[in-house]
Write a structure and sequence with these properties.
elongated, mainly alpha, about 65% helix, about 170 residues
Amino acid sequence: MSIIPNSVLTEEQENSPKPRKRLFEAGEMKLLVLHFIAQAPKFSYDIIKEVAALVGGNYKPSTGTICPTINYLEEHQYTQAELSTDDRKQYRITPTGLQHLEENQETVEKILDRFNTRKQIQNDEKYVDIKHAMENLKTSLRLKIQHSELNEIQIREIAEQIDQAAINITRL
């Protein structure tokens, strides 16, 4: 197996467009928005700011993401809107929403933990080597897949090496 020099990895990272990553699995954004509304009544803009602050990086959800999410929560009676004095909708959690949030608390905690760890790796200078190593792994995988016809054995070997790295890190 050939090793890709770091200079090639760095060049590939700098010159390739950033692939669009899926930050949320199905239903996670709904639970996260409900979690934020449960903290205190919110306007949609407040929700956008809180999600952006949690996720970190350059991510900021659009109104095209948040508004349908809020509509879903209202339709399922998890939240209700009240007009503020300036005729803006402010969202509050309902008893049904609180129950739904309680039933899914473990999932909410996993989402919060995942993004807090992500933000910590992105923002804390002491993790810069880990951040670069993670980017190198993603870039080397992308290069290998783009420029090689991998057979089933090679795919399994790559997966096993990544799994072994995870095991080794866990044992540190």
